[in-house]
Amino acid sequence: MKNLSKKIAAVACMAAAMLMSAPMQVNAQVPSIPRTNTTKPAKPKASNVAWGTEYDFLSTRYITYDDISGYDRGQIRVLKNSIYARHGRIFKDKQLREYFSNQSWYRGTRNEIPAKEFNKFENANIAFLKKYE
Question: Is 121 exposed, middle or buried (0-12, 13-18, 19+ CB in 10 A)?
């Protein structure tokens, strides 16, 4: 019993020493800095781009294989060409011309769209989709 009392006293002394050597905590009210997302989706440079379509995501983020894993080659072709269509490309291919002509947002105004008019997501997504088309 005497040994147990000595052990308890020793542990209590060590705990007290640790508490005294630890820096005192001050409960100060530090204002938090609001974290805002400073990166805005990159919109294309051209002002005549159709927005509000089911294809907008192709202009605002990089797509992955998971995005297209269930698509066949024809659907991937439409995805890729939707980027051009949103910029107003007139399609020579009859199937693409018919498909996009039936979209309420489509306004074909030009035969070619210069690559510099596409934003970084669109350029990357076109290249990505070409691999699977």
Answer: buried
Nearest of 55, 65, 129, 64 to residue 85 by alpha carbon: 55
Q: Is the pLDDT of residue 54 over 90?
A: no
Maximum alpha-carbon separation in the chain: 99
Q: Which residues fall within 8 angstroms of residue 87, CB to CB, at 6 or more apart? A: 44, 46, 48, 49, 110, 113, 117, 118
Q: Give the pLDDT of residue 52.
A: 73
Q: What is the pTM of this model?
A: 0.63
8 Å CB contact between 50 and 86: yes
List Cβ neighbours of 74 (8 Å cut-off, separation of 6 or more).
none
pLDDT band for position 8 (50/70/90)? Answer: low
